[in-house]
Write a structure and sequence with these properties.
With about 600 residues, the protein is mainly β. The chain is about 0% helix and about 55% strand. It has a four-stranded antiparallel beta sheet with strand order 1-2-3-4, with no helix packed on it. Strands 5-6-7-8 form a four-stranded antiparallel beta sheet, with no helix packed on it. Strand 46 and strand 47 form a beta hairpin. The radius of gyration is 28 Å and the shape is elongated.
Length: about 600
């Protein structure tokens, strides 16, 4: 069988976003990630216009030059600078400063100012790489900014000082004192005020000419990221407990909350000429464009971390994914958009159920909650807490009619009402010493099939309660279970890696051996029941009528999650080798070659 060829059509960061920058005209945005990539985005377009490898490790900081022709990135520990030409979308120059780079800011029309861990502030020409001037701050530099009206550079250091430097002078023309180490420095558009934040529970405003403190804004965070919006003069900063506050001069710099996340705010950047913010948070990992009221206008990311579950639409090239970044995302291959967030549960998403591709999706997370979300409005319909699932996460979630059944890793089953989330019953093993490892509903009947360590069982659901229990096959250990629309079910026998088939329509309830597959951990059926999909170090597709392997997809890593897409025309794959990345293969069953048509 031929090896699949690759075509890259979507891109983004693998991992967290570690650097943010606005272009000089605010129409372009640059993001740097822990994958060493620089992505350049245009506002209004979710797909990046350029994805450029700039460093081997994390991108510590990034900025555009004032003329907008180039972008400069800094790699922290290696002390390396990369200059990227936006026209050619390639790295045109690499420089080494010898010390870790902590901050970058545009200087003049084609230069940058870089702050280093050894206390140096260096002005560089981005076109030639020549050093124009070096200023000695005296302590580790954590923040650098430039005041264009005054044509001077400001540096904030670990010693609690903010130094103002002029070109042609080696000593600072002004020094401001802050109660603790400085982490963020910003200057107003008219160059009259300086705003400083750092390792002190306060944000302070200073007069640029006299250095006098003009006022304080109380903060309960010792390392708040800070952004000063030039067009309005508003100060935006992060606090503990994930709060993002805004202090406006119209209200006397009285702070009020505009957004909240469960983790921390890592980066904040304000646009130069528009009232917009770029924010990056740690939990959930999210890079977003926001208004000053906190409303998200656009996201510039996809899953940060592993994709733990996939739920496809039965007919369309649309699917949902859930991951370790606590988001549920909608992927539509018919649109030039990487993904859209349709739900944000409290914990890492471990299972998804999307019955018939309808408006409602059911989500199980590691916080022990099962919730329902509206795919169109992105609102949560209901949530039901069922205890912490960090050590025994949800393994499977299936729905039919009014019933919603959830299975965890310990074999416990929760039976809920699908429309309200009300818990009908919680029960453990169906028999002492028997652990359930897979579940599935018999189509059109209130019967729940159980794949257990002691064979295949069925439970008859009578109203709100579990009724009669019956053993179909007792001598097998079934670890995975999928049910076709016809009622035929397939299960994986764990010790021997054998796939068994039970044709309940024909009455052959004892089952028969269907195929052997080593290290298989995920079974999926096409919506019509014609094709069976299994994943391991490769992906195999069986014809359920003949039992023969008709397609085999080879990858460069251990396959993690697989699913059919658009009926049985495509297969979507998430693997361990590329964390957070998705591949979509066109199958063209049963004759054509396998071909990768999309990556995310």
């Amino acid at each position: 069988m031929p090896r699949a060829d690759t075509t890259l059509v979507t891109a983004g960061h693998v991992g967290e976003v570690t650097a943010l920058a606005f272009g000089p005209t605010d129409d372009l945005i640059a993001t740097g990630g822990e994958d060493g990539m620089l992505c350049v985005w245009r506002i209004g377009e979710v797909r990046p216009i350029a994805t450029i490898p700039v460093h081997d490790l994390d991108v510590e900081c990034a900025c555009f030059t004032a003329d907008g022709d180039q972008a400069v990135t800094g790699q922290g520990y290696a002390g390396a600078l990369s200059v990227v030409c936006l026209n050619s979308r390639a790295v045109v120059r690499r420089l080494r400063l010898g010390h870790r780079i902590t901050a970058l800011a545009p200087f003049d029309s084609d230069g940058v100012a870089a702050g280093c861990i050894n206390g140096d502030v260096i002005a560089l020409d981005a076109r030639t790489g020549r050093r124009r001037q070096r200023w000695r701050h005296g302590a580790r530099v954590n923040a650098v900014c430039v005041s264009f009206p005054m044509e001077c550079v400001l540096s904030g250091g670990e010693d609690g000082r903010v130094c103002v430097w002029h070109a042609g002078r080696t000593s600072p023309v002004r020094v401001l004192s802050f109660p603790a180490a400085v982490q963020s420095v910003a200057v107003t558009a008219d160059g009259r005020e300086i705003v400083v934040a750092g390792h002190a529970p306060v944000v302070q405003r200073y007069d640029f000419r006299s250095g006098k403190c003009l006022g304080r804004i109380e903060s309960d965070s010792l390392e708040p990221p800070l952004a000063l919006v030039p067009v309005t003069g508003d100060i935006v900063f992060g606090q503990s407990y994930g709060r993002l506050l805004r202090a406006s001069p119209k209200d006397g710099y009285r702070s009020r909350r505009i957004a909240t996340v469960s983790g921390f705010w890592e980066r904040l950047v304000a646009a130069h000429n528009r009232p917009l913010l770029l924010t990056a948070s740690s939990e959930p990992p999210c890079c977003a464009l926001r208004t000053l009221s906190g409303k998200i206008l656009q996201r510039f990311d996809h899953h940060v971390g592993s994709v733990l579950c996939i739920a496809p639409h039965p007919r369309r090239p649309v699917f949902l994914t859930g991951g370790t970044d606590t988001t549920v995302r909608l992927h539509d291959l018919r649109r030039p958009i990487a993904s859209t967030v349709v739900g944000e549960p409290l914990g890492k998403v471990s299972v998804l159920a999307w019955p018939s591709g309808g408006r409602r999706v059911y989500v199980g997370d590691l916080n022990g909650e099962i919730s329902a979300w509206d795919v169109r409005t992105r609102h949560r319909c209901w949530r039901t807490p069922l205890g912490d699932r960090s050590w025994r996460p949800w393994r499977q979630l299936v729905q039919q009619g009014q019933f919603l059944a959830a299975l965890d890793d310990r074999g416990d089953i929760a039976l809920l009402q699908g429309d309200s989330g009300h818990v009908l019953q919680l029960f453990g093993s169906v028999w002492p010493g028997v652990q359930t490892k897979g579940i599935g509903f018999v189509p059109g009947r209130p019967i729940l099939l159980l794949g257990t360590t002691r064979g295949l069982w069925e439970l008859e659901l009578a109203g709100r309660w579990v009724g009669r229990t019956r053993v179909l096959t007792r001598d097998l250990e079934v670890s995975e279970l999928v049910v076709a629309p016809s009622g035929t079910c397939y299960g994986l026998e764990e010790p021997t890696c054998t796939i068994w088939k039970w044709n309940r329509v024909g009455g052959n309830e004892r089952g028969r051996r269907f195929a052997r597959a080593k290290d298989v951990h995920d079974l999926r059926l096409s919506p019509d029941g014609r094709w069976l999909l299994a994943s391991a170090d490769d992906v195999r597709v069986w014809d359920t009528r003949t039992g023969r392997v008709v397609r085999r997809l080879h990858g460069d890593g251990y396959w993690w999650q697989v699913s059919f897409l658009a009926g049985s025309k495509m297969v979507v794959v998430a693997d361990r080798a590329h964390c957070g990345k998705l591949r979509v293969y066109r199958l063209d069953l049963p004759r054509a070659r396998n071909r990768v048509i999309a990556r995310d």
